[in-house]
């Protein structure tokens, strides 16, 4: 059963994530790194150390998660954007049919993050990543707000599928037995 309030909440979360992602990328690219216009995938800046475990580092991701399917060609750019748009359309349909709060929150996070990364891909030809966590000699992937939202959204959907309370509709046969 569709709950219009959950649908609206999911869309609001998506918009908030999209805005946070695009504003953070603008701030890092223009404000922090001071990259001149036009910003392209040739734009680069040296990393900025924030703490002993966090740097702001300018990395262009031509692929999807963890650099998979990377390629600096129009086919890859438009192909990945088309796939992401189709996934977003499917997620919006899921959000419309959803009646669970955690699912609405998780799907909203994923939608906002996916759209944010598609905007980068269409605008720059790659996704701007800048958050680089590291510990000693170990270096984690470089990511952005959109990537974080997508990852958290997926974790929420997994948690809901494992631990969420389910209501099962009573079938006519079950009703007749009582």
Keywords:
about 180 residues, alpha+beta, 4-stranded antiparallel beta sheet, 5 helices, about 55% helix, about 15% strand, elongated
**Any idea what the radius of gyration is?**
20 Å
3D shape: elongated
CA-CA gap between termini:
25 Å
Largest sheet: 4 strands, antiparallel
Point out poorly predicted stretches: none
SSE pattern, N- to C-terminal: HEEHHEEHH
Q: What percent of residues are in strands?
A: 5-15%
The chain-level structural class is alpha+beta
Overall strand count: 4
Mean pLDDT: 88
Task: Give me the number of helical elements.
Answer: 5
Major beta sheet, strand line-up:
1-2-3-4
Share of residues in helices: 55-70%
Q: What does it look like?
A:
This protein is of the alpha+beta class and 178 residues long. It has 5 helices and 4 strands; from the N terminus they run αββααββαα. It has a 4-stranded antiparallel β-sheet with strand order 1-2-3-4. Helix 1 (4-32) runs parallel beside helix 3 (101-124), helix 2 (74-97) packs antiparallel against helix 3 and helix 3 runs antiparallel to helix 4 (145-163). The radius of gyration is 20 Å and the shape is elongated. The model has no long low-confidence stretch (mean pLDDT 88).
């Amino acid at each position: 059963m569709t709950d219009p309030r959950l649908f609206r909440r999911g869309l609001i979360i998506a918009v908030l994530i999209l805005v946070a992602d695009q504003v953070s990328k603008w701030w890092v690219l223009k404000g922090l790194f001071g990259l001149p216009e036009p910003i392209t995938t040739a734009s680069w800046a040296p990393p900025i150390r924030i703490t002993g475990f966090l740097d702001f580092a300018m990395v262009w991701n031509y692929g999807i998660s963890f650099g998979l399917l990377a390629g600096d060609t129009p086919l890859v750019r438009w192909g990945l954007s088309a796939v992401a748009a189709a996934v977003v359309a499917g997620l919006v349909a899921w959000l419309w049919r959803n009646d669970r709060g955690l699912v609405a929150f998780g799907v909203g996070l994923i939608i906002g993050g996916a759209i944010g990364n598609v905007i980068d891909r269409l605008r720059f030809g790659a996704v701007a990543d800048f958050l680089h966590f590291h510990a000693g000699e170990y270096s984690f992937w470089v990511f952005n707000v959109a990537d974080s939202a997508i990852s958290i959204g997926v974790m929420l959907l997994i948690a809901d599928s494992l631990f969420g309370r389910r209501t099962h509709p009573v079938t006519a046969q079950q009703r007749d037995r009582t």
